[in-house]
Amino acid sequence: MTMVEINFDGIIGPSHNYAGLSLGNLASASHAGDLAYPRAAALQGLAKMRHNMALGLVQGFLLPLPRPNTAFLAAIGADGTEDRRLNAAAWSASSMWTANAATVSPAADTADGRCHLTAANLVTMPHRSQEWPDTVKQLRLAFADSAHFAVHDAVPPCFGDEGAANHMRMAASHDAPGLEIFVYGTSGGAFPARQHQEASRAVARLHRLDPARTLFVEQNPEAIAAGAFHNDVVAVANERVLFTHEQAFADPAGTYAAIRDRLPEAEFVVVPAAEVSLADAIQSYLFNAQLLTLPSGEMALVVPSEAIEHSRVRPYLDRMLAGNGPIRTVLPVDVRQSMANGGGPACLRLRVVADPATVDPRFLLDEAKASRIEEIIQREWPESIAPEQVGSALLAERVIAARLLLLDALDLSELA
User: Fold this and answer.
1) Range of the domain at 362
2) Residue 334 belongs to a domain with what CATH number?
3) Which of 9, 65, 236, 396 is the most exposed place for a label (fewest CB within 10 A)?
4) Residue numbers annotated as active site
5) Cα 95 to Cα 101: distance, rounded to the nearest angstrom
């Protein structure tokens, strides 16, 4: 089998809006109430997928979940008129950030030799806590081959789990046995710690990981307080390389030592706070990037345009590239609509190491499929959504119809 990393990006749904529902997500809060542009958002996300395909990488996608979620409102005895935030939660397009869809352990790391995926319960935020049942339904369709995949329900909601956004994997190569690094938070400060250590340990047990190749690391509380609501806002790993902010972890030296003890070939690219502050990192989403191995074997960092435009981040990137480090290319992409809601390139993708032949081909992107998706987005996605439109019966009809047309075009109507 040919085991490669496949990035599954979320197609940004037609109900994309700026309701500011995510406490601790500074970008989301600062744009609350702004006019949103769902069509532009979805086209930007699709362009990023095409960009990565053009690099020679295998690209997958996941579909928007059903919105507005009337079942969510019914479960709490609401009809959408009582509470603006509850109504906005039912409309949220946040499932586009597939880094939070699940935690993924490749077959090379698990005791039964299958790739394991555990859906994240996302219990900390009401607008996200409703996602996982529909996410599991989609994952079980995309990864239905039980000889190669095991898809688990979310861990119990008493333990907060935010999926791959707080999980990293390092290995000599994608298909080699790796070190799985679970990053958890500790409660305290103005913002909640969303990833509980207990949830991370439960996922590791469900995936039947080797304890000798599993690491549990505490995120720096200062990073959480500064707005790094997920670890992938301050650190990203790929194969043997960890690209991280100096203040990402509670015990940086201990973390690096523990990684190197388990993976001697590990390389660390540590960005000093004196050059890029935590505030700079969070504003630019420098670390919420895709660190990718290109077909040539070189590593590329796909960053949001905001990182290239930042007055302190750009000079750092120039210095990094001028050195002899493992990251040889920086590639900017425009995902401004997602960024304004608090999600950069890394938020928009879920990494799965697998043989593409074992994945349901309907979830793998090619140019013909991309053109089909683009056509429907151009024709059916609302051009804009203002805050006062969220809850509109007329807009709800359009959002529901647009998603169903996309499902039909992709032969995925069973997700309706």
Assistant:
1) 4-415
2) 3.75.10.20
3) 396
4) 162, 230, 347
5) 7
